[in-house]
Write a structure and sequence with these properties.
Layout lengths: L38 E3 L5 E6 L9 E3 L6 E2 L31 E4 L12 E6 L6 E7 L10 E5 L12 E5 L7 E2 L7 E5 L9 E12 L12 E4 L7 E3 L7 E4 L2 E4 L3 E5 L9 E6 L2
Length: 280
């Protein structure tokens, strides 16, 4: 589905909720009640994050962001050099998009309105290389000028961008979440309840003991490692039973599927189990 632009993003500092019972991890909302990524830590150390589900989802599903809809691989010539042509009326005259102190830059990256809201950007070469920013929003391609869009950042640019600068963009991992599998992006967490309607909002768990769906390569030993399944979308697998997921290297062991946590209980193949999540 198209990326959600109705999601609520924030760049403010968030305190710890103090009132017991104020947040229910089983709440499902048709409109965002909290900023995506809002963190809730229970007294037992379990951590939950608020997110947007791209499709109806079963409780226990391992979720990841929809990489293919909110990402852009880097290439040279993406950025338009700072120019008076694109002066923003809400910024100091002479501070043009892409310049130091501006919160905007103009780019050839194809975009729909706010497609990249809440996403993360790294400058990967030339001027500004190594600096990362968070994206607040963007215009549609062609609104600024033919083939161009304008991106707005939460923070001002600290090293000017140039026509040779290239950027790499990855979306907010709590927006448009879907069942984790090969080809999805960063793991977001495990759905703690059934989300019966696409494009609804709710909670995923990222740390602590959690009911989690598993595939055929199920956990057999308490304390053994669990990773994202390579065969069942949104499930976990026992790394020890999935030999193809482990590769010996000259410096150690490489695991081809992301680490999720440790099996805290044992059940049967293709049934939910309990996993001590270590996603954050």
């Amino acid at each position: 589905m198209a990326i959600s632009t109705s999601s609520y993003f924030s760049n403010s500092l968030v305190g710890v909720p103090q009132v017991a019972g104020e947040i229910s991890i089983y709440d499902v909302n048709s409109a965002p009640k909290y900023a995506l990524g809002t963190k809730f830590e229970r007294q037992d150390g379990a951590i939950f994050r608020y997110g947007h589900f791209s499709a109806a989802t079963s409780a226990g599903t391992l979720m990841a962001s929809t990489y293919d809809q909110v990402s852009d691989g880097y290439s040279t010539g993406q950025i338009v050099a700072p120019s008076s042509t694109y002066q923003m009326p809400n910024e100091t005259p002479g501070v043009y998009p892409g310049a130091i102190g501006s919160r905007y830059f103009v780019t050839y990256i194809t975009a729909t309105l706010n497609q990249y809201a809440g996403a993360y950007m790294a400058v990967v070469n030339s001027s500004g290389m190594g600096i990362g920013y968070r994206i607040r929003g963007c215009t549609s391609t062609g609104v600024v000028a033919t083939a161009l869009s304008r991106f707005e950042l939460y923070e001002p640019i600290v090293t000017a961008l140039s026509a040779t600068s290239a950027v790499l963009i990855v979306g907010n991992k709590y927006n448009d979440m879907k069942g984790a599998g090969i080809g999805t992006a960063n793991l977001a967490g495990v759905a703690v309840t059934n989300v019966n309607t696409a494009a609804y909002f709710g909670w995923v768990q990222t740390r602590g003991i959690c009911s989690t769906l598993q595939g055929p390569n199920h956990g057999t030993t308490i304390g053994s490692m669990a990773s994202m399944s390579s065969g069942g979308i949104g499930t976990v697998q026992n790394i020890a039973l999935f030999a193809a997921g482990i590769t010996a290297t000259s410096t150690g062991i490489a695991i081809s599927t992301p680490f999720v946590g440790y099996f805290a209980g044992i059940s049967s193949a293709n049934l939910p189990t309990l996993v001590d999540l270590q996603i954050e």
